[in-house]
Structure formats: C-alpha cells, structure tokens
Amino acid sequence: MIELRHLQYFRTLAETLHFGRAAERLHISQPPLSRQIALLEEELGVKLFDRSRRRVELTEAGQRFYLDTGTVFAAFEQAKRNALAAARGAAGELSVGFMMSTAYSVTPAITRRYAAQFPQVSLKLTETLPLDLAQDISSGSKDVAIMYRPQDCSGLETVTLFREEMTVVLPPGHRLLAQSVIDPRELAGETFIIVPRRIAPALHDIIFNYCLQHGVTPNIGLEINMQQTIVNLVGEGLGIAIVPRSMCNMRLATTTFKPLRDAPVIEVVAVWKEDNHNPCIATFIESAQQASAQASREQQTA
Question: What angle, 0 to 180 degrees and rounded to 10, lies between the N-to-C axes of helices 30-44 and 4-16?
Fold first, then answer.
C-alpha cells in the first residue's frame, strides 16, 4: 500500500536527483530510500527513475507522477488548514435562530460582522418566535438563539448582547402626541396591544409590571405575536403599545414613538446549550458581542 511517506521520498529524490542528498534531507540512510523507491515503482507498475552510476533522472512517467503528487500534497495541506480552522470555529456550520424584533436592532450587524470575519462558516439564520427559540436550543435543532432571556435557563448558557429602553408607540391624532416624555400613569384607560405571555414571557412581564408599578392596569385589547405587527396595528388606530426602542427603525409614517418616564429596559441575549460542542459557537458569541457593543454605542449617540 502506498503511503504519504512514500510520496515524500519520491518527491525528495525527484527534486535532488541524488540518492545520497535525498536520504540526508529525509534523515534516513540511503539503502532504505532505495528500497522504498523500488517498492513504490513495483506498486505503481511503472519505472519512475532512470538510474546509472553517474546520475539519476526522472522518466516520463516519473515527471507526470511528480506533477500529480504535488496536487496531492497541496490538498493534504489544505485539509490540515481546514481541520485546524474547524477546530478553532473558523469553519463549519452554524444554525442561528432570532426573534423578528431583533432584525431592527442587533441581528443585521451581528450577521454582517460574523460573515465577514468567518467566511468559511456556513451560517443559517431562521426567524423564530421567542416561545420556540429556547426549545430549539434545548432540542439541538439550533446552535444559538438571539432572544429575550428565557425563564428557564437550566442546561443553557447565556450572554447579554444588547440592552434597550422600552418606548410607547402612539397612533395618529393621539391625545399624548404633544408631550415630549410620557408618564406611564397617563396610559390608564388606553387599549394596549401586547405580545401574549406564552410567546414572549420576558417582554410581556416587563411591560405589564412596569404599568402595575405606576398604578396602571393595562387594558389588553389585542394580543399579537410579532412586534412589527403590533406597531402596524397601532398605526391603524387600534390601540397603543409599549415596545423596544429599536422598533422605531420601522419608520412608519402612521406611528409616533415617545420616550417613557423611568422606562424599563429589556435585554437581548445569546443562548446556547451548555453541552453543544460546536466550535463555531464560541467564535459567533465573540463576534456577536463585538457587533452588539458597537450597536449600543450608536444607540447612545442617536
């Protein structure tokens, strides 16, 4: 059986055309080198070298074999680089789920940065409801989720990517449009459009508890799964909503976003299963933190 070392012996002899110098370069003695070359020729069924007392020359078959083995060694070196990249998380596959609302905050920046830093990673992004994201991580159908912090983090690792204030979104002609900052007590009696608790418990609870802390019991008119749909329905005059500040990036002409007094803050986190050993997770988390830090700085200066 031909081994990689036999090809290395052959290529060294082909480059030196001298058994003594080739043996010296290979750190072996000349007789074993001669035997290995003879065995290689026997295995191939062709003569690779013309030998005489004065010189060694490649045959036509030897010249062709030298060219082709160069391709073999180049492929082997590439295979080593690929294996090292995969071990370091710089190559491979990564499945990431994200909430649609983060498409208006950190997900685009994270995706751009990671794709630029690690072009050899096949990154699959899927928009998913918060309800399903933690389950997808636990089941292993996704490697990482970008979401609000799950209630049950057992078996999971999390890192905060982004914090943003909540803001109130008002429809056209609303009585509070003239105010620069909205006191939550002024929202008493309003019809709220809110995400159902079973879909996004962290977001639902922040909104509900904020109102209760200021003496307001939200009058829930509509429960809607997606934040962008909530903002659209506010624009249609179906109620008001408290949403993450990044939803301002929808830039709807029919809605107005106003800051809240003592506004609550919602966290967006990266979540992954603690026993998921995909090395691309570590590189993704590091890149995501870098992109999120930049997004936070831009938010503060906006």
Answer: 110
pLDDT tens string 134-169? 889 888 889 999 999 888 878 899 999 999 999 999
Is the CB of residue 239 less than 8 Å from the CB of residue 120? no
The per-residue pLDDT for 90 is 66
> Burial level of 75, CB count in 10 A (0-12/13-18/19+)?
exposed
Please report the pLDDT score of residue 302 as a whole number.
59
Rg, Å, the chain Cα set: 32
Name the residue ranges covered by the structural domains of the chain: 4-87, 92-156+275-301, 162-266
CA 108 → CA 122, 153, 302, distances in Å? 16, 25, 18
Q: What is the pLDDT of residue 82?
A: 62
Mean pLDDT computed over 281-285: 91
Q: Extract the tokens encoding 268.
A: 């967006």
Asked whether the predicted pLDDT for residue 77 surpasses 80, the reply is no
Sequence-ordered list of residues with C-beta below 8 angstroms from that of 56, at least 6 positions apart, any chain:
13, 17, 18, 19, 49, 50
Task: Tell me if domain 92-156+275-301 and domain 162-266 are identical in fold.
Answer: yes
Q: What is the CATH number of domain 92-156+275-301?
A: 3.40.190.10
| Average pLDDT value for residue range 259-268 | 95
Is the CB of residue 223 less than 8 Å from the CB of residue 128? no
For residue 248, CA distances in Å to 102, 131, 222, 254 come to 12, 23, 20, 12
The listed CATH number (1.20.1340.10, 1.10.10.10, 2.60.40.10, 1.10.340.30) that belongs to domain 4-87: 1.10.10.10
Q: Which tokens in the block code for residue 235?
A: 């624009």
**pTM, full prediction:** 0.70
CATH number belonging to domain 162-266? 3.40.190.290
The pLDDT value recorded for residue 70 is 87
- If pLDDT is split at 50, 70 and 90, which confidence band does 81 have? low
